[in-house]
Amino acid sequence: MDALVPAFIIALLAEFGDRTQLLAMALGDRYRRSGAVIAGIALAAILNMAIAGAIGMEIAAYIPHRPVQLLTGIALILAASGVAFRVKAPPTVETWRLGAFLSSAGAFFILAFGDKTQFAIGALAAGSGYPWLAAAGGAAGVTVANVPAAILGERWPQVAPLRWARIAAGILLGLAGIVLIIMALQIG
Is the per-residue pLDDT at 138 higher than 80? Predict the structure, then answer.
């Protein structure tokens, strides 16, 4: 549980109002098959977070705990700054002819590969000692964050106060990052 729940919360906060949610909205509206879109998003999230967990496990083998804790704090601050800035529109998938599931899985995997959430979960996986729990929590958080966007489509921003949610998520991620950095540097 040391990695599962924090990873879930970090991923959920980092994805709220992100480009991935805009993509989930577009996919939900285009295909009108939210179940297939969500399944594709879940598969892409599992793959991306498994990569993060594997990289985190590899990092943990070579770097001591305090520097990894510092890295995790920096990753959370970077995720917070990414949440705070205006989101650019995701790439269009209008011309993709792979169907709801494969288009969602492919587009989501490409868009989320190497993003702030994957970086933060990789750092958490390195520091937690439970990289696969971190990966599982991250995948669940990403999926849960995108379910309402896939179901509601373009109505999602009207239902959820995305601007304020992004600000709150940025503050929470930033504070968590600062706490980790202070702990890593043994300040105070």
Answer: yes
